[in-house]
Amino acid sequence: MPHSDVLVEALAAGGLPSLQGMGRRERRAAETRLRLFRSALHLFAERGFSNVTVEDITEAADVGKGTFFNYFESKDHVLGVMPELQLAKVREADRLASAGKQSIHAILHRLALQLAEEPGRSPDLARALVSSFLTSEIVRSLVERLMSGGRAIIAGIIAEGQKRGEIDRGLKEDSAALQLQQVILGTVLLWSLHGERPLAEWIEDSFQLFWRGIGGKGRERKS
In degrees rounded to 5, what are phi and psi of residue 149? Predict the structure, then answer.
């Protein structure tokens, strides 16, 4: 299993990955990458992205500097893990939609809350993430590539909702998928500036408004 896939499993589980079927080497790789990623996020939130070095991250994670470069090309590439994690959540939502046992409303609602979990750990972390996206071309490129892939998957979920009559058939699914991403990112940004309430409450309000805009039955989809 590729190291990135191991890490995604680890993060998606909220801790260490399911170790069934994994060898000792893969297990250690997952644990090390997870530790580096979590240590980096903590430091970015505490000091700001530009004020953290690779040495800071390895010291906080209690690993050697050489070990860091076994997993990441640079400090910037550590944050590429964030959209990987988000993409794993989107893929899980797609799996649930294909299974047909839950409403599309329930699936997208759960997805919106899950996508806000990581940046929602603290307003400082959310601001650090936004800052890294603005200042690092590497991070921007990684985020855009993975968000584009996620958007295509979400568009498929939207299309499934249209087939079921849960979502307005007059909408273009790719536009609705982009709107959902915009809703989540915009809400995270505004919350990071205020943060009086938990981010989950902000996302809840934003999602309900989003759903009111796309929900509907019996309308024909535009060509």
Answer: -65, -40
φ, ψ (nearest 5 deg) of residue 154: -60, -40
Q: Terminal CA-to-CA distance of the chain, rounded, Å?
A: 41
| pLDDT, position 22 | 58
Domain residue ranges of the chain, discontinuous segments joined by +? 3-75, 81-214
Q: What percent of the chain has pLDDT over 90?
A: 48
pLDDT one-digit tens code per residue, 96-143: 999 999 999 999 999 999 999 888 888 888 888 888 877 888 888 888
Q: Would you tell me how many other CB atoms lie within 10 Å of the CB of residue 122?
A: 16
Which residue, 83, 87, 221, is CA-closest to 153?
Answer: 87
pTM, rounded to two decimals = 0.80
CATH code, residues 3-75: 1.10.10.60
Q: 81-214 adopts what CATH topology?
A: Tetracycline Repressor; domain 2 (1.10.357)
Contact, 87 vs 146, CB < 8 A? yes
Confirm whether 3-75 and 81-214 share one CATH topology: no
More confident residue, 75 or 102: 102
